[in-house]
């Protein structure tokens, strides 16, 4: 099997939540010799050193320092660790006509209809009291299918195929147990799963579809799976920085909370990246000069042309799956790409014989955005937004092309080494 595809699928299986994606990335960085730094401690970074630091176990920054310790600027790679989904409410246990159900909030711009009739599991981060009374946290993944949101039979809603408005409060409650079974208690269930836990205090838990990613199509040209937006880019970035040899300084930033606007201390609108840069380059002038010499490659999936809905794209800016990396441009600055950054990127693609395509939204539609503009604004760096073309963005199951994944890994490596 194609190597990046195999690697991506293993990464996806390890990463049902942003916490797990961060842990999966850290595992790979450690194997590549990266050393942990803690924000609560003082740092003494060395020339040629490779480091990583996390915030909340859900955002991650990793960097390789050149002999100038970053003064000559960084080649940045950015992506986001989170994906739209269903987040369990703090007091989620519900008795629905005797059934054990778990109340959820919708996290991000979910294509709600895709969550019906899927075998769901639960994963995330749990905070608990241990037997000595100390507060601890642990990542947890139940792995087994434990819940389902059943559709209503067509006979009971004849107009279902004409479309209906989904009320998430009423209709999107996963069912965990049948009427007559024991009264549900999620915290008690979690406490049993965590060794040494006396009591579970709280959690950040998400439902996720247990069906794993797979190769798809007559010629196995596609990859289907959950959370391809944006774990495809996270995976490629981790591969690239892991393979980076000290020369130019390189930095990867993977932020949580992109799907809900990035406005948290782990999100791209927070100060995580800025604070890391301040530690590495404490003098404002050094930092200013370094940022002026830096380039930020912000990677997030792009809308690939859907053969059944081709009219939703501008014909001349309609990237196809398998057709190469997508350069995203928006006059309203929803993407940071400008002529200069796009030109540099195109010339690198041409050198490496990596195909690229262009995306610009139809003039009568509103454009989405990503971490690029937030980061560029915060640290004052030039860059561009790119990504692999994707079908069904924000569905519980998305599709990308094997070829495009390979291009992304290759391009990111070249980008860091340039
Ligand atoms: Zn995304």
UniProtKB/TrEMBL annotation:
Q: Which NCBIfam families match?
A: PRK02813.1 (NF002759)
State the protein's name: M18 family aminopeptidase
Cofactor(s) the protein requires to work:
Zn(2+)
Enzyme class of the recorded protein, top EC level: hydrolase
Q: Name one GO biological process term.
A: proteolysis
Give the EC number: 3.4.11.-
Q: Which GO terms describe its molecular function?
A: aminopeptidase activity; metallopeptidase activity; zinc ion binding
Which family does the UniProt entry place this protein in? Answer: Belongs to the peptidase M18 family.
For the keyword Cell cycle, the answer is no
Keyword Membrane in the entry? The reply is: no
Q: Name one GO cellular component term.
A: cytoplasm
Q: Which CDD domains match?
A: M18_DAP
């Amino acid at each position: 099997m194609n190597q990046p595809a195999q690697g991506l699928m293993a990464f996806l299986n390890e990463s049902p939540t942003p916490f797990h994606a961060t842990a999966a990335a850290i595992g790979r960085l450690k194997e590549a010799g990266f050393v942990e730094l803690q924000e609560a401690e003082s740092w003494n970074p060395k020339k040629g050193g490779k480091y990583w630091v996390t915030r909340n176990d859900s955002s991650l920054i990793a960097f390789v320092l050149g002999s100038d310790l970053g003064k000559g600027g960084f080649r940045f790679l950015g992506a986001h660790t989170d994906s739209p989904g269903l987040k369990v409410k703090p007091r989620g246990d519900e008795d629905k006509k005797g059934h054990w159900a778990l109340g959820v909030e919708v996290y991000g711009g979910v294509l709600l209809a895709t969550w019906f009739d899927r075998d769901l599991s639960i994963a995330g981060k749990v905070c608990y009291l241990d037997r000595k009374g100390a507060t601890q946290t642990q990542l947890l993944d139940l792995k087994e299918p434990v819940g389902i949101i059943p559709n209503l039979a067509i006979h009971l809603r004849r107009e279902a195929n004409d479309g209906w408005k989904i009320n998430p409060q009423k209709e999107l409650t996963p069912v965990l147990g049948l009427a007559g079974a024991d009264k549900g208690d999620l915290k008690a269930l979690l406490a049993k799963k965590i060794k040494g836990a006396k009591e579970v205090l709280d959690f950040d838990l998400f439902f996720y579809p247990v069906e794993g990613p797979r190769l798809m199509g007559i010629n196995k040209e596609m990859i289907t799976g959950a959370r391809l937006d944006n774990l495809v880019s996270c995976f490629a970035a981790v591969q690239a920085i892991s393979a980076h040899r000290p020369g130019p300084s390189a930095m990867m930033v993977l932020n949580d909370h992109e799907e809900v606007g990035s406005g948290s201390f782990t999100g791209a609108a927070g100060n995580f990246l800025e604070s890391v840069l301040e530690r590495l380059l404490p003098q404002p002038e050094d930092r200013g000069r370094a940022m002026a010499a830096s380039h930020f490659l912000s990677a997030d999936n792009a809308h690939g042309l859907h053969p059944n809905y081709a009219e939703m794209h501008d014909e001349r800016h309609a990237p196809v799956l398998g057709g190469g990396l997508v350069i995203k441009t928006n006059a309203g600055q929803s993407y940071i790409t400008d002529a200069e950054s796009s030109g540099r990127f195109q010339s690198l693609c041409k050198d490496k014989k990596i195909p690229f395509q262009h995306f610009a939204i139809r003039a009568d539609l509103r454009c989405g955005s990503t971490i690029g503009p937030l980061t560029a604004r915060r640290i004052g760096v030039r860059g561009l937004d790119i990504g692999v073309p994707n079908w069904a963005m924000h569905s519980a199951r998305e599709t990308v092309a094997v070829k495009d994944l390979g291009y992304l890994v290759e391009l990111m490596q070249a980008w860091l080494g340039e």
